[in-house]
Amino acid sequence: MTDEIHTDEPPDSRRKGKHRDRRTIGPVPNLEEHVKSDWWRGIFNRLYLKTDGDVVDDQQITEREIDRIAQVLHLQADEKILDLCCGQGRHTLELVRRGYDAEGLDQSHYLIQRARSTAKKEGLQVRFREGDARRLPYRTDTYDAVLVLGNSFGYFDSVEEDLQILMELRRILKPWGRVLLDVADGEYLKENFQARSWEWIDNAMFVCRERSLSLDSQRLISREVITDVDKGVVADQFYAERLYTPEALRQLLERAGFSGITFHDITTESQRNQDLGMMERRHIVTAVLKKEWSMAKVKGRERAKHVAVMLGDPAKADAMKPSCVFDDDDFYTIDQMKAALRELPGYRFTFLCKHDTMIQDLTKLKGKVDYIFNLCDEGFNNDPRKELHVPALMEILDIPYTGSAPQSLAFCYDKSLVRGAAKEMGIPVPDACFITPGDRTYDVGMKLPAIVKPNTGDSSYGITAKSIAHTIEELSNVISSLRTTLGYDRSLLVEEFLPGKDISVGIIGNPSGYCAVLPIIEEDYSALPPELPRLCGYEAKWLPDSPYWKIVSRPADLPEETEKVVVRCCLALFERLECRDYCRFDWRLDEHGNPKLLEVNPNPGWCWDGHLAKMARYAGLSYPEMLGRILKAAEERFGMEQETGAREAGKESLPADFTRQTA
What we know:
- The protein is α+β, with helices and mostly antiparallel strands.
- The protein is 31% helix and 23% strand.
- The strands form 5 sheets. A 7-stranded mixed sheet has the order 3-2-1-4-5-11-10, with helices on both faces. Strands 19, 20, 21, 22, 23 and 24 form a 6-stranded antiparallel sheet that branches.
- α10 links the parallel β12 (305-310) and β13 (347-352).
- The chain starts with 10 loop residues before the first helix and ends in a 13-residue tail after the last helix.
């Protein structure tokens, strides 16, 4: 905080020590007249950390605030975060302690030096910069999230300057980046401010405050007279902050191009709990930025590998999704993928999603792209039965592509066929009964409980908490209900419901060359109510309001021999079912801890928060690195397919830390 020192005494009397320096201007009739337009340049100093220390210098408060922020923004470890107006870096440092990639910027030289000093003492690798929030020294499309915390928004004389900050945030945020503002509740403070107050800071210092509304009633003007009982008045300072109402803040964010604007509660805590001032009542507001990538992001990559990315069609219906259309979560997932790909050096990407023109688009691209990154797990025209049609078209056009070929997708789409292949190979599977569309009577011939699922399908469609039957009567009801939902032309699989751990295995690479088995994960069902069956079905993947949304994945705790058996079987199935480049295998343990195969998923979900990404994260791979390794696996395979005996040369295109696994 600035020290505004005023004195009427002659210099010689001060030098002789006859009178104490006067550091206050006494009573003033109009506080607003004494507020400088750049009051914020000098006000944030050592005195600020004392007068506001009960809120801004309490580590426990900081930790709880970061808990809340991480929850609200769903922060991920591989995201880039900017803590704008970071002060002494308390939030930035706490984010870095927790493993986030965060950095901070503030205009206060004193506070930035404090932040750097703390980081150095703790051995934290974090960057702090001095700068003006209206002219940020960062590149376009850099950050996944920007935080403006501690009531640091609204310092300037005009709303247009605040808008200028938001426009800078718009520039530096990636598409689908998020902003979080921690701001005072303007309506509450306008109606409840105290014209005069005072509080003890410690045993030797107290602060007297005066407050008034600005002439236009849009800002709260404050004066602080800080007094030391031994030294007298040490500062007399004035400042002003804009009182934003939720509606005014919403309109400002919308003007800057943000959407999805949501207000959240946040508690102001203080051990001193005397005069909280502007921090007395506040809220946090979050918003999402939907924008296109800047062209500057791809400059200079014309000579890089040109890869076309094939996706589902967001303009068409998708029966697998709860609303049957692509929603904001889907678009966010796509933009997370695009952001990750743009971090990969040596590539240039084109994105294809219009299925009505897919044939023409691919024909035009033939010979102009190195290959296709096939992420169209929705299927042609978003029909999961036509997932294999997309690579089949690439086969016809003779364009290389990532992932499994049509035959493999056809094999694995049919759960009963996968079971047959596994049994033929001596790989254990649960007891099951296949029910054709025409079956009206059936003898399941297995112990209950059982789970009823579509024999063909994707995205756990048709697999819910109501899919479990404990009696023959329940089984009949579940089958009837599922037929009503899916249609009577679909075959069903009745499978014993295993009570043991639910595990998944991921593979990136190809057994004929180099491949890596990612850390096995298991589903943690501890947050589920005890009456709900333990399964990771449709609710867990698509319905945020469901109790199943609370399921988390963690590294599997398995006996060494069990893990070896599972990995050996997965590698054998990968080869037998002609999977390529990447794949996921789902298993479950029985009551004795014996593993049994449930499904094989070639071209599994590629999204940033999917099972494959979780396994990669436990292997120390970021989301961009995971996608990059899938690309490298395909590139190595292309090389081996094109040139007999070129395997040794092809190995160099994959990272050295890939380890060969054999069945």
